[in-house]
Amino acid sequence: MEQILVIDDDDDLRTTIIEVLEQEGLTAHPAENADLALNLLKKHPYHLVLLDMVMPGTDGMTAIPLIRQQAPRTRIIAMTAFSSAENAVQAMQRGADDYLVKPFKIDALMLSIRQNLQEARFQECHKDTDMDDVFQGLSNVLRRQILIFLHRQGMTRFMDLVRALEVEDHTKVNFHLKVLREVGFIEQNAHKQYSLTNSGERAAECLSFISKNI
Amino acid sequence: MEQILVIDDDDDLRTTIIEVLEQEGLTAHPAENADLALNLLKKHPYHLVLLDMVMPGTDGMTAIPLIRQQAPRTRIIAMTAFSSAENAVQAMQRGADDYLVKPFKIDALMLSIRQNLQEARFQECHKDTDMDDVFQGLSNVLRRQILIFLHRQGMTRFMDLVRALEVEDHTKVNFHLKVLREVGFIEQNAHKQYSLTNSGERAAECLSFISKNI
DNA sequence: AGATGTTGTGAAGAATCCTTCACAACATCT
DNA sequence: AGATGTTGTGAAGGATTCTTCACAACATCT
């Protein structure tokens, strides 16, 4: 069952939204401010949060990165009555996945929720690569260089990659490309160009996270 | 020198922006439509593109993911005269890094450019400090289990660790402890209890980061 | 002292990972 | 067509990593 957290200080609206969500067969919990919400998120995993931007105490804009930090995989839909393009951009830059302008139709809300839950589920099933595969992919210097190069460069053809990495024996690169393909980090398009899959992108981001943090 | 690509069908605006950027000491190239821009991006790496949303031919909104795919690390600043929150959200969801509403002050443009270039540069510093040791330490299931256990548990004696991990042969654990010690992730105190060093703590945090994000 | 449990070493072999080599299919250019 | 460059396979062997085994120093308990 999909778990949803509704963060809004307006009692009526919060209750209404929760009733609608439960009618739609989703499980929804209320939180009347951001701090309570963060506590709930600490204890329990949610698939998605609906977050009001304007609240007493910690406001929504501030809360976004805190929620992101606490629950990196949880979808965040920002809601606001005072909308502007600048505000929307800021919310997205801080990590919101969508941004709804009040008053919205229930249909619009449900559409956004359904889409975000589905994308999350898609990424989830793409995540079935286990930690072991990840480390299998990352456990070799050349493979890490390939990942980083493709992360920076995007689509690249085989020999260009070989030359960029300054490897004399191209079959060596081939061997490691095969490993990366088997692990699901890279793929080839119709023109035989290599690029990262999204799980490969995430792996490359992990690499940069590690190199930053070690 | 920072390379910038200005994509706009309005000749006057394009020229003006390029002049300003060059006065600021940046290198800027023009492209009057999205297809020309994609060709330029294929040939040459840019740090940042300024992208008009409304153009004949491939429009800006369509171009964003294409640019993203061709040049994943290039910053994209979307520009539009017809702004709405919905439009801004869509641009960000497709991969824009910022979204400016025309007419904008030159100062606002330069601020966004400077910020984006700086963040990009920050992410760039990928210095391959001995990542090899790190991965040496993390490249084995049992070693990862040991790290995670010590991260949760703190100081632990040898046989307690062996039993907690349910390994039948204690010398196996010993072997991996030795590796972890050589890499500098763990240490022993006077009572022969094992615990994480601070670099070991950081490694364990990387592990949990990875398991959250993959 | 003797029995039991803890902590550790070193070496041999197994398993895995990586490199190298020989070669081949295919595209592109002259 | 022939030459050149690109992309790829498979097998052999070398290198590294992991497991297992035999054993030993030391503490603790009875």
From TrEMBL, chains A, B:
InterPro entries hit by this protein: ArsR-like_HTH (IPR011991), CheY-like_superfamily (IPR011006), DUF7347 (IPR055771), HTH_ArsR_DNA-bd_dom (IPR001845), Sig_transdc_resp-reg_receiver (IPR001789), WalR-like (IPR039420), WH-like_DNA-bd_sf (IPR036388), WH_DNA-bd_sf (IPR036390)
MF term (GO), any: phosphorelay response regulator activity
Keywords: DNA-binding, Phosphoprotein, Transcription, Transcription regulation, Two-component regulatory system
Pfam families assigned to the protein according to its UniProt record, in alphabetical order: DUF7347, Response_reg
Coiled-coil positions: none
Domain Response regulatory: start-end pairs: 3-117
DNA-binding recorded as keyword: yes
Keyword DNA repair listed: no
Name of the molecule in the record: Response regulator
Species the sequence originates in: Candidatus Desulfatifera sulfidica
Top-level taxonomy: Bacteria, Pseudomonadati, Thermodesulfobacteriota, Desulfobulbia, Desulfobulbales
